[in-house]
Amino acid sequence: MTPVRVLLADDHALFRQSLRAVLDAEPDLEVVGDADTEGAVVPQVESLRPDVVLLDVSLGEGDGLRVAAAVRAAHPEVRILMLSMHNQPHLAEQALDRGADGYALKEDTIDDLVYAIRSVLRGGRYLSPTLLRAQARATPSPEPRLRGESRRDELTGRQREILLLVAAGKTNRDVAAELGLSPKTVENHRANIARQYGLTRAVDYVRYAIRKGWMEA
pLDDT tens, 125-144? Predict the structure, then answer.
């Protein structure tokens, strides 16, 4: 199996070195290079041809969100996973708008990060689970409705569970396994959600969760 080629872009040398050691220990991952400034990222992508770029939101004096947009424009085939210390939903949404495929936090576990890399690599969207509220299964009070929504249009409990898991980067198969459902049942629920709310992409699910107030600030 050919390892997944990973480029690290972070302005802290010790963090890059530590992350390289951890990721290189994974049999299917290989760190092929690193960058520590905004201007170094795109040239490194062009020369090293990574599959995934782990990109810090803050690159010293640089702007990781601007870099994400530049990488997406020049190399649309490369997956971009933002890696940040900022647990702020609006930054996650901005990152997705700029072309990132996911938003992970530096406080996450290494298992979370490895999962995030594999998730974006297979075409999914990933959002750090610490950004989402653990309130999918039971809500003590009625959820807030968006303007124009009637009570009968609100998500069912099961739809809400599925929406939050998809927003966190889970595939249909992942969701089915976690909730004890068949993949076909998950597909049917997602079709109903898409029909009612127009949420067709994982990024749409993330934005909906942000608007509904289901994410930690």
Answer: 788 877 654 333 333 333 44
Give strand pairing partners of 31: 6
Task: Judge contact between 78 and 52, C-beta under 8 A.
Answer: yes
Our separate counts of H helices and E strands in the chain read 9, 8
C-beta separation of 57 from 79 below 8 A: no
Give the whole-angstrom CA distance, residue 124 versus residue 126: 6
Closest Cα to residue 115, out of 127, 107, 99?
Answer: 127
The answer to pTM > 0.90 is no
| CA 84 to chain CA mean position, Å | 12
Contact status, residue 54 vs residue 78, Cβ threshold 8 Å: no
Instruction: Burial-class residue 111 by CB neighbours within 10 Å (0-12, 13-18, 19+).
Output: exposed
